[in-house]
Each structure stands twice: as C-alpha cells, then as structure tokens.
Write a structure and sequence with these properties.
A hairpin with a 2-residue loop joins β1 (about 5-10) and β2 (about 10-20). About 30% of the residues are buried. The radius of gyration is 17 Å and the shape is globular. The strands form two sheets. Strands 3, 4, 5, 6, 7 and 8 form a six-stranded mixed β-sheet that branches. It has one domain (about 20-55, about 75-190): Rossmann fold, CATH 3.40.50.360. The chain has helices spanning about 35-50, 90-95, 115-125, 145-160, 180-190, and strands spanning about 5-10, 10-20, 25-30, 55-60, 100-110, 115, 130-135, 170-175. It contains five helices and eight strands. The longest helix has 17 residues, at about 145-160. It starts with a strand and ends with a helix. By secondary structure, it is of the alpha/beta class.
Amino acid sequence: MKFRTSPLKSFINITLLREGDTPMNTILILDKDAKTELSEDLKERILTILKEKAHRVEVVELGRSNVTPCFGCLLCLTKHVGICVTRDRIAEIRNNANRYDMTIFLTPVIFGHFGSTVKCAIDRGCGNQNLQVMVGYSDDIDDEEKSTFIDLTLKHRGEADIVHPGFDTQVDVYLTTSSQDNDAICEAFKKYV
C-alpha cells in the first residue's frame, strides 16, 4: 500500500492519508458542564489522532441550557424525514448529520448511564447513519456501573438498535476511569482513522 507523505524535516515523513483516502468529517459531542481532567485528556488525545491524519473535526460542547430532550413526536421519521422540529443546537447537528462520517460522544457515566445532556443528543439521532463511538468516563465508578453502561449502550444503540431502528450502522462503546484506560482507548481508536 502506498502512502502520501508530507516532509516536515528532511529526515521525517508524516503519513497523512493512505493513497485514495479522503479526510473524514468528524464531530465530537461532549457535555461542557461535566468536564473532568480525565475527559479533557481523552478529548485532546482523540483530537490529536484525528488531526495527525488530516481529518476535519468539529467539537460541540453542549450544556444543559442549550439542549432539549426528544419530544417523541416522530416527525423526524414521518413528516419531515431526518429533520428535527425542535430548534436548538442539537437540531442543527441532527439536521446536518449527513455531513459527518463519524460521531464521537464523550459522556460522563452517571449511575451506569449517559449524562443527560449527551443523552439528549443521542436520543435525537445526532450520530445516526454513520460510525458512532461512545466513550463514557468517570473517576469514581464501580464494576456494576461499568457493566451497566457498556451493556445498555451496546443493546440499545448497537446490537439491538431499538432507539432509532434501522438508522444506526455501527456503534462502538468504550469506558475510561484512568489515564491507562485513555491510552488503551486511543490505541483502539486508531482503527477508525
């Protein structure tokens, strides 16, 4: 396989893209009200991996004040297919979801579930029809909460596909509680780029 390279110095070549590849458009959605040192470390590392491969990244920091839960009206599935009628930041993302090749959700894990702010974005289909990578984080979480987060996410967003049937194409789930977990997630993350 040939690689396109960009010489930064006479003795160093950095691989930007495999020949024939195009940069991915990626959106990283996170809860700005629940940032931790752990989540910020992982966010910066993920952004570095994406930018090293020349991918375009949009970072969206959602807060409680600029999101609205899904009303369950189903107009996005019936009358206005793919368009959310609620006017907020999530609707802007949802209504332009086809611009992205990958959606990364970085969410706090609270009692084994997504944080409510990121859950609003997930429930309203921000990552539908493209690769979704869900990363939960917590500095203080027990084994039961870890298992609950991973199992529920895989069942409801991935394998069973019951939240938006037929829309989710691939959902991968990770959980971090330490810098070592961040290392492992970043290593696994390289398969996407």
